[in-house]
Amino acid sequence: MADIDFRNLPPFHSTEEILAHPRFPFAREEFVKAMLALYEHKPFLNRLLLEASRTVLLAIIMCLYARYDEADRATWPTLRLVADSMAAHQLASPSRVQDLVMRLVEVGYLEQRAAPHDRRVRILTPTAKMITQDQDFLVSHHVPLQILFPDPGYARIMTRDGAFQLMQRLVSRDLFALGAQILASNPVMMLFQGRDAGIMILIKMIEMAGRANGDRPLEVSYSDLGDRFGVSRTHVRELLEEAEQMGLVRLGKGRGRSVEMTPQLLQAFDRLVADAMSGFDLCYQLALRAA
């Protein structure tokens, strides 16, 4: 497949258009619900996937797998190619990438197969378990797009069309730099994205604040948050204390666990969600054109 011509992109929805949409608050709420349905009370998935380098790694492996052409050695999804692709995101060292890949092999998400034309080379191949997990991830990130722009909508992803999934991942391979740019442009959110289950802890607090439907600080249990996402009470406490030092939350000083999220944090979360929606919309439109 030829590389994407960035001078001739299909129409797609921008971050600013998404943020300005009158139904964006509802779309964000449904995204939060979709993410919690996928990861809450599933400690194995949280420990395996929910940290920025692991999330990006799975996406990269799926993209490289979609582009794999036995006749073109440059496309072979080897550990070296995965590490080189991860380097642009500056999220993990080559040795860290190797450790993460081996963990995915151990738990049955990846297989290492000898390359047909060179038995010395190992090809990283996603299993059915990993392909299904990737579909779950894509659906959760297209839910808010489907809400805002239902006509013509995103049926090819929402119905888990396997062929289209690979097509979307195929075109996504040329957008790694965009993904890295989205992460880099949201430094406030990197505190949560860079910690085990950090983003889900934030998403849960946002969901709790929505249910409370008020301006009062949240009353939370560090132990309960940790149990929901497979991390320790200490991990939650240290994460929120660091967030407080950065001016992102205000923690109560009494015995209760009072947490108030600042406007800066909530605005950063909204922009991250909108950035991601815009990027996924572009990928979907590119895949439609390619298909």
Description:
This protein has helices at residues 15-20, 24-39, 43-49, 52-67, 79-87, 94-106, 128-148, 155-158, 162-172, 176-184, 187-193, 198-212, 222-229, 233-245, 263-290, and strands at residues 110-115, 118-126, 218-219, 249-251, 258-261. Helix 2 (24-39) packs across helix 12 (198-212), helix 4 (52-67) crosses helix 5 (79-87) and helix 7 (128-148) crosses helix 15 (263-290). With 291 residues, it is mainly alpha-helical. The strands form two sheets. A three-stranded antiparallel β-sheet has the order 3-5-4. It has a two-stranded antiparallel ribbon with strand order 1-2. The chain contains 15 helices and five strands.
Summary keywords:
mainly alpha, 63% helix, two-stranded antiparallel ribbon, 5 strands
Number of strand elements: 5
| Helix content estimate | 55-70%
Segments where pLDDT lies below 50 for 5+ residues? Answer: none
Work out the radius of gyration.
Answer: 20 Å
What general form does the structure show?
globular
SS element count, helices: 15
> Averaged pLDDT, please?
90
H/E order of the elements? Answer: HHHHHHEEHHHHHHEHHEEH
Reading side by side through the largest sheet, how are the strands ordered?
A: 3-5-4
User: β content, as a range?
Assistant: 5-15%
What is the terminal separation in angstroms? 11 Å
- Class by alpha and beta content: mainly alpha
Please give the largest β-sheet. Answer: 3 strands, antiparallel
